[in-house]
């Protein structure tokens, strides 16, 4: 049974008539559209972890999932709605009864719930996907919004593929759903087809021709198929849209969504041009980016704007000289604005608890006393193997510590014979005393490790993705391994770090297998 009415109404600052033109509403869809990135499945605990950070980042809306699609998504939305009280929580639904009731149910405990209903409106989708005439589309959209309105005041409607919808028909759809009670109308460029000027005109056309447009917030949602998602979003803001839908690191379907950090920093840095800002605490951007890339396994390209490793690095001598003389010669933003610590002092073997604790804090992480102590011990072990410990090393250790996967199996020892038939011998520990030991071969050393872990745990995983990268530079850099494994139709991600890349690979695979084992155990 879906609940009766839920939540405490539309947040005052989302009401169209009162929406502040100077503060753009940031609707984060990392946990919904972002999670639709190929290879980025998150479990409910990981989603909750990201939601906590999104709340610290101070986004206005978190789209927590599409609950009708899976039990896991339903659980994620419910957990987030229960815990995150200071942000609006949106739940996605097609314009059908089953989805809307499920979305309402998932938001039962939310303080500020929003149901986000969508239905495709473009000719291509009407003809081939929905096989519905225009009148039927309007009827279904109105019915969906009215149904959602039975449960919540805050209802968003998205005409999917809006940018390829006939502009006049789009006006009709938008006007009808606002009449039906939609408080936000979102205009998606679903397939990343729009061009900035054209997309801005689409928004302008709605503002000029939808009679009741003042009763709803105009939102935009852009995909990056032509690399124009951020440019299109900014052009739409300039044309009058006051909500932007985006994701951390720009992750999302296919080429991804518009990147939150790029939009927010563009609005902030070029306030002179846009005249808008956001409520985002920009100094939390880097920490959020790291948490999302760590948990999704989707690494950020080095030259990515704002959050890439090179975003604030100056290689050329001329640039370095200029920056040293006057920072603004080559830097349009301060690294500290996005959360990059000013200090570049590296820690090492002789650094004590106090220096370590201080650095963890500067990096923007909150650790309990117990977590701090354990991470410090890991830091000391690492410092024995590695002379200089960089911020990225510390962050990798913290992410390991924060990973909430229980360790049913732990790696006790591992040895590899790389001869003509690569063979791995592994001992796994269960609890304090029980040791399982075995060895088997593979096509290469990594394959042999994964096969031996399968043999020891009795869980056969199909490896979908495996990657390894150096966390910092230098021969003694920490290696971060990431794997995606399929077991009985479900995908599991694992990640681990070590100065030994073979060990990191074994631990990452075991991390994924532990998730399977715990799930089976619960069942
Ligand atoms: O891209 C899209 O059209 C969407 C909708 C569900 C808003 O993600
Ligand atoms: Zn989308």
Automatic annotation (TrEMBL):
<dbReference type="InterPro" id="IPR000891">
    <property type="entry name" value="PYR_CT"/>
</dbReference>
<dbReference type="Pfam" id="PF08502">
    <property type="entry name" value="LeuA_dimer"/>
</dbReference>
<keyword id="KW-0808">Transferase</keyword>
<comment type="subunit">
    <text>Homodimer.</text>
</comment>
<dbReference type="Pfam" id="PF00682">
    <property type="entry name" value="HMGL-like"/>
</dbReference>
<keyword id="KW-0464">Manganese</keyword>
<dbReference type="InterPro" id="IPR050073">
    <property type="entry name" value="2-IPM_HCS-like"/>
</dbReference>
<comment type="similarity">
    <text>Belongs to the alpha-IPM synthase/homocitrate synthase family. LeuA type 1 subfamily.</text>
</comment>
<keyword id="KW-0012">Acyltransferase</keyword>
<dbReference type="GO" id="GO:0003985">
    <property type="term" value="F:acetyl-CoA C-acetyltransferase activity"/>
</dbReference>
<dbReference type="InterPro" id="IPR013785">
    <property type="entry name" value="Aldolase_TIM"/>
</dbReference>
<dbReference type="InterPro" id="IPR036230">
    <property type="entry name" value="LeuA_allosteric_dom_sf"/>
</dbReference>
<keyword id="KW-0432">Leucine biosynthesis</keyword>
<dbReference type="InterPro" id="IPR013709">
    <property type="entry name" value="2-isopropylmalate_synth_dimer"/>
</dbReference>
<feature type="domain" description="Pyruvate carboxyltransferase">
    <location>
        <begin position="24"/>
        <end position="286"/>
    </location>
</feature>
<feature type="binding site">
    <location>
        <position position="33"/>
    </location>
    <ligand>
        <name>Mn(2+)</name>
    </ligand>
</feature>
<dbReference type="Pfam" id="PF22617">
    <property type="entry name" value="HCS_D2"/>
</dbReference>
<comment type="function">
    <text>Catalyzes the condensation of the acetyl group of acetyl-CoA with 3-methyl-2-oxobutanoate (2-ketoisovalerate) to form 3-carboxy-3-hydroxy-4-methylpentanoate (2-isopropylmalate).</text>
</comment>
<keyword id="KW-0028">Amino-acid biosynthesis</keyword>
<keyword id="KW-0963">Cytoplasm</keyword>
<keyword id="KW-0479">Metal-binding</keyword>
<dbReference type="GO" id="GO:0003852">
    <property type="term" value="F:2-isopropylmalate synthase activity"/>
</dbReference>
<comment type="pathway">
    <text>Amino-acid biosynthesis; L-leucine biosynthesis; L-leucine from 3-methyl-2-oxobutanoate: step 1/4.</text>
</comment>
<dbReference type="GO" id="GO:0009098">
    <property type="term" value="P:L-leucine biosynthetic process"/>
</dbReference>
<dbReference type="InterPro" id="IPR002034">
    <property type="entry name" value="AIPM/Hcit_synth_CS"/>
</dbReference>
<dbReference type="InterPro" id="IPR005671">
    <property type="entry name" value="LeuA_bact_synth"/>
</dbReference>
<feature type="binding site">
    <location>
        <position position="221"/>
    </location>
    <ligand>
        <name>Mn(2+)</name>
    </ligand>
</feature>
<keyword id="KW-0100">Branched-chain amino acid biosynthesis</keyword>
<feature type="region of interest" description="Regulatory domain">
    <location>
        <begin position="410"/>
        <end position="523"/>
    </location>
</feature>
<protein>
    <recommendedName>
        <fullName>2-isopropylmalate synthase</fullName>
        <ecNumber>2.3.3.13</ecNumber>
    </recommendedName>
</protein>
<feature type="binding site">
    <location>
        <position position="223"/>
    </location>
    <ligand>
        <name>Mn(2+)</name>
    </ligand>
</feature>
<feature type="binding site">
    <location>
        <position position="257"/>
    </location>
    <ligand>
        <name>Mn(2+)</name>
    </ligand>
</feature>
<dbReference type="GO" id="GO:0005737">
    <property type="term" value="C:cytoplasm"/>
</dbReference>
<dbReference type="GO" id="GO:0030145">
    <property type="term" value="F:manganese ion binding"/>
</dbReference>
<dbReference type="InterPro" id="IPR054691">
    <property type="entry name" value="LeuA/HCS_post-cat"/>
</dbReference>
């Amino acid at each position: 049974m879906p609940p009766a009415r839920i939540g405490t109404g539309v947040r005052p600052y989302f009401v169209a008539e009162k929406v502040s033109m100077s503060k753009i509403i940031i609707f984060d869809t990392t946990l919904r559209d972002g999670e639709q990135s190929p290879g980025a499945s998150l479990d409910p605990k990981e989603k909750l972890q990201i939601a906590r950070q999104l709340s610290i980042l101070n986004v206005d809306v978190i789209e927590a999932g599409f609950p009708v699609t899976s039990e896991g998504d339903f659980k994620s939305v419910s957990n987030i709605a229960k815990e995150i009280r200071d942000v609006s929580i949106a739940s996605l639904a097609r314009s059908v009864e089953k989805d809307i009731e499920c979305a309402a149910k998932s938001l039962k405990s939310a303080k500020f719930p929003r149901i986000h209903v969508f239905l495709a409106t473009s000719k291509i989708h009407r003809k081939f996907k929905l096989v519905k005439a225009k009148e039927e589309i309007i009827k279904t959209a109105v019915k969906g919004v009215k149904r959602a309105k039975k449960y919540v005041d805050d209802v968003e409607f998205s005409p999917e593929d809006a940018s390829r919808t006939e502009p006049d028909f789009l006006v009709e759809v938008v006007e009808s759903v606002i009449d039906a009670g939609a408080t936000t109308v979102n205009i998606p460029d679903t397939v990343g087809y729009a061009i900035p000027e054209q997309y801005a005109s689409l928004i302008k056309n709605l503002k000029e021709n939808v009679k009741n447009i003042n009763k709803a917030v105009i939102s935009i949602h852009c995909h990056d198929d032509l690399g124009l998602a951020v440019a299109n979003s900014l052009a739409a803001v300039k044309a009058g849209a006051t909500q932007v839908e985006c994701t951390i690191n720009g992750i999302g379907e296919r080429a991804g969504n518009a990147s939150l950090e790029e939009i927010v920093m563009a609005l902030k840095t070029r306030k002179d041009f846009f005249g808008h800002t956001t409520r985002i605490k920009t100094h939390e951007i880097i920490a959020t980016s790291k948490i999302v890339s760590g948990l999704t396994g989707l690494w950020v390209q080095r030259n990515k704007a704002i959050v890439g490793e090179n975003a604030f690095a100056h290689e050329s001598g001329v640039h370095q000289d200029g920056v040293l003389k006057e920072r603004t010669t080559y830097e349009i933003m301060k690294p500290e604005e996005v959360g990059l610590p000013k200090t570049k002092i590296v820690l090492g073997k002789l650094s004590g608890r106090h220096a370590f604790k201080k650095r963890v804090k500067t990096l923007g992480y909150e650790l309990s006393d117990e977590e701090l102590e354990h991470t410090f011990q890991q830091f000391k072990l690492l410092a024995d193997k590695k002379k200089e410990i960089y911020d990225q090393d510390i962050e990798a250790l913290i992410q390991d510590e924060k990973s909430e996967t229980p360790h049913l199996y732990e790696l006790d020892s591992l040895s590899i014979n790389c001869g003509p038939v690569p063979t791995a011998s592994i001992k796994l520990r269960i609890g304090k005393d029980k040791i399982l030991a075995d060895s088997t071969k593979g096509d290469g050393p990594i394959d042999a490790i994964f096969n031996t872990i399968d043999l020891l745990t009795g869980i056969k995983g199909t490896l979908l993705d495996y990657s390894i990268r150096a966390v910092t530079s230098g021969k003694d850099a920490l290696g971060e391994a990431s794997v995606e494994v399929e077991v009985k139709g479900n995908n599991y991600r694992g990640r681990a770090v070590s100065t030994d890349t073979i060990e990191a690979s074994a631990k990452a695979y075991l991390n994924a297998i532990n998730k399977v084992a715990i799930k089976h155990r619960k069942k």
